[in-house]
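BUG: 3D viewer hangs when loading the predicted structure for this chain

Environment: internal workstation, default settings.
Expected: structure renders.
Actual: progress bar stalls at 90%.

Input used:
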Amino acid sequence: MHGPYDPAAGHKHNPAKLLLDPYARAFEGDLVLDDAVIGHLHGRPGSPEPHDSAPFVPRSVVVDEAFDWGDDRPPATPWDESVVYEMHVKGLTMQHPGVPAELRGTYAGLAHPAAVEHLLGLGVTAVELLPVQQFVSEPALLRRGLMNYWGYNTVGFFAPHGGYAAGGSGGEQVAEFKAMVRALHAAGLEVLLDVVYNHSGEGDEHGPTLSFRGIDNRSYYRLPAEDRHRYRDVTGTGNTLDLRTPHVLQLVLDSLRYWVTEMHVDGFRFDLAPALARGADDEVDLRSAFLQAVQQDPVLSRVKLIAEPWDVGHDGYQVGRFPVPWAEWNDRYRDTVRDAWRGAGGGVRSLAYRLSGSSDLFGQTGRAPWASVNLVTAHDGFSLHDLTAFDRKHNEANGEGNRDGSDDNRSWNCGVEGPTDDPRIEGLRRRQARNLLTTLLLSTGVPMLTMGDEVRRTQHGNNNAYCQDGPLSWVDWDLGPDDMDLLAWVQRLVELRRTQPVLRRRAFFTGAVRDGVKDVAWFGAGGEEHTDAQWFDAEQATLGMYLDGRGVPTPGPRGEQVVGDSLLLLLHTAAEDDDVVLPGAPWAASYEWLLDTADERPVAAGTLPAGGTLRMLGRSAVLLRAVRGQDGARTG
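Structure tokens produced before the viewer hung:
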């Protein structure tokens, strides 16, 4: 690509560098460390590096895009019925004994019946794949002998990553990806992609010249007016793509439509989404050209759209502010639920909002409860097991002096870091995992599970394993009794969510009253509805959520209207055991015991009288079915 080389003015054309086609459907080869991949001489940004970079960079591949989709149809799972499973293509199957060795870690491996069987057994409705668009590893990682495992370093927005293909990376990855989608659709599973359009894998001004930088640096990237050699960075990765530029916006929209129309994916999770909506003054503009274009697009407006609603720039935290039809990762949910179960105090007012769909965040702008994608863990941070077992991060293997990753996980580990032979501590850790999963899967909104949390996957305290492509990050399928117990819990919770319409509301609770019973009511340990004083009492540690299921019909398997049960969820987050009084009339005549996180496996434990007292173990949750009337008829 010939043109001016004037870094101070933002121009970095260098015809000695082989550039990737931004619209290529596949790439072959990897980035290799060599001075030739950098566009300028070391320490001399004003002097272009003269050597040919072709031997050291991936190459664009011409692809035969013909594919027999057969009778493939999108599952089109409604938002309120969705349970999302965030996962890594390689990490799920790399150690799976049921997947043939030659298919492990690949698209074909994920499509294998052994992998699909696990997903269906869990009951999830969608997989959310960590980045599968072609990416490269950062030079700094390569110098340390590591690689980018998560994939948030994209260089090809139309190309499935060649490293995940069992059949070869000379274009075969395209057909293999399509076959994976077809197989998952046949099993009723949606495929969502975690996409990274906020930056590219070229990094900052010291990074390689691979594509956009050499084509038209000033158009593709946000550059500071005072020094256009450098890059504005609201992503923490060294550069930010400039979607104010018409052709950059077109590239992103063309890419999104391609993955829907040609690759048949069902939606997207947008990494650092505010960066895509920043305007001319770098302020976040929720009426930006990008958001308006997506909203009006006849293809994109009909698929699932999930925003990670923050970036690292000024005013980058935008939780609750994205427009219809977007859903959002709800970190307020994550933090509130974690704080409650680790005993951070603060009362139960915020917890009630999170349990009931976060109407304080999403209900004021005409959005539905499904706009809140609820999570307690994600790829970025501690796994569920490690969250309950470590107070401190242990990221030494990343080669950054343990400075990377969040450092706040206090008061989870009972004073002991990592594995212990103390049965009391290990028992509490397992119970805390059950508490978090129970809260997540019984809350209003869209729950998101993280790969391996259901089988107690550990990263041994590493909470930023982005560069760990090995057993530390892969799911270990050598499951012990404790792992199987937790798996049974997750399966039971997902089943309850599927069969109880009141857990999958399409509209926020309003406090509407029927036969003296509200659609949602809140109780303390004394069995009476919360008073205003209790809502603002920071010492409150017990919360009961009563959900009236009589007014929430849902279509049954033959189109008939099915009405579920009324449920009482009790969360006792204090460390000490306590007596909890069950609400009496008109809420129920008695209660049937469905779940108690004090149990290692999910079991029903009999009937309790309304108005009676239940002894709850410290840090535990109980789910009850309400029964009304002398004849024992259920509330439904």
